[in-house]
Amino acid sequence: MRVQNLVIIGSGPAGYTAAIYAGRAQLKPLVFEGFNAGGVPGGQLMTTTEVENFPGFPDGITGPQLMKQMRQQALRWGANLITDDVIKVDFRQRPFIITANEKEVQAFGVIICTGATAKRLHILGEDEFWNNGISACAICDGASPLFRHVEVAVVGGGDTAAEEALYLTKYASQVHLLVRSDQLRASKTMQNRLFAHPQIKIHWHSIPISAHGNEILQGLCLKNTLTGDISQLSVNGLFYAIGHIPNTELFKGQITLDAQGYIITEGKSTTTNISGVWAAGDVQDHHYRQAVTAAGSGCMAALEAERWLSNYGSLSILSVV
Ligand SMILES: Cc1cc2nc3c(=O)[nH]c(=O)nc-3n(C[C@H](O)[C@H](O)[C@H](O)COP(=O)(O)OP(=O)(O)OC[C@H]3O[C@@H](n4cnc5c(N)ncnc54)[C@H](O)[C@@H]3O)c2cc1C
Question: Of the CATH numbers 3.50.50.60, 3.40.50.300, 3.30.70.240, 3.40.50.720, which one belongs to the domain with range 3-117+244-320?
Answer without folding.
Answer: 3.50.50.60
